[in-house]
Amino acid sequence: MSRLRETATFASAIAVLVVAAVGGVAYAVLSLTANAHAVGKRREAFVAIPRFGIERSSANVSETAVPARAAARAVVKRVVIGASVRGRPIVAWAFGSDRAPRKVLVVGCIHGNECAGLAITSALRRASVPDGVQVWLVPELNPDGTAADTRQNAHGVDLNRNFPYRWQPISDPTYYSGLHASSEPETRAAIRLVSHIRPAVTIWYHQHMDLVDMAGGDRGVARRYAQIAGLRPTCLTFLSGEETAWSNHTFRGTTSFVVELPAGPLLRGVLARHLHAVRAMELGQRSGSATQCDSITPAA
Description:
By secondary structure, the protein is an alpha/beta fold. The protein has helices at residues 3-22, 34-39, 68-73, 118-124, 143-148, 185-197, 219-229, 243-250, 268-282; strands spanning 30-31, 42-43, 61-62, 75-83, 89-95, 102-109, 133-140, 201-207, 211-213, 232-236, 255-261, 296-297. α7 (219-229) links the parallel β9 (211-213) and β10. The two termini are 30 Å apart.
């Protein structure tokens, strides 16, 4: 999607929101209760989010699509934060109030052939949210890659080499970094979301190194996740154009880190450990030094 098209889509979304407001439809977040969920009614909900390229939320959202346990405790909204090269929507789910002082972002899949993290984001949609916390879930940042079972997006770009911090041209087809920094619509969608919500913690799921990369931000945060999940905490060597490096450099005081899941689908017990680890992040837990690496591991 070109920047011109993104701007045009933004304008269309704002127009829809204005019409909805005139028609008396609330364009705040979709607030669900356990009773409303039981009735199974359908409501229209629009979400206005400043600075996003695409602002139209899911209209006519079925309440039955939102798990009862989450609906009973949290304000829920679905936001299309962008579109892939092929036009597939990139969807984010937010659980909890926008006024919550702590925000956590979880991205299930950025490389289309490394999507075991989708089991975690799916389970998190059924989980409750602690008071004072808003949890954002982006199951698939790279829907074209997932559909094609490829690491790269539809332009052949490794999105985790396309972020603007210390971007470098990489011609290797496996890790091709794009024509320039932030050249890809999926990258720009992630940048807009992170810039808007400023999450205290961002978790990116990858495969298959079976470790937690604590290379930036507060290393005690990633270390605590690793302890609970039963993974080895380490610092991977620096790679240009990574999201975690961009986010940790741009938003000081926040922590973005990578969880490298093992190969294959997650077993039930392993999934449970990761859900406990995410809850620890929601609660602000950390362990040990904020600056020291437990070890150094060459990045793949």
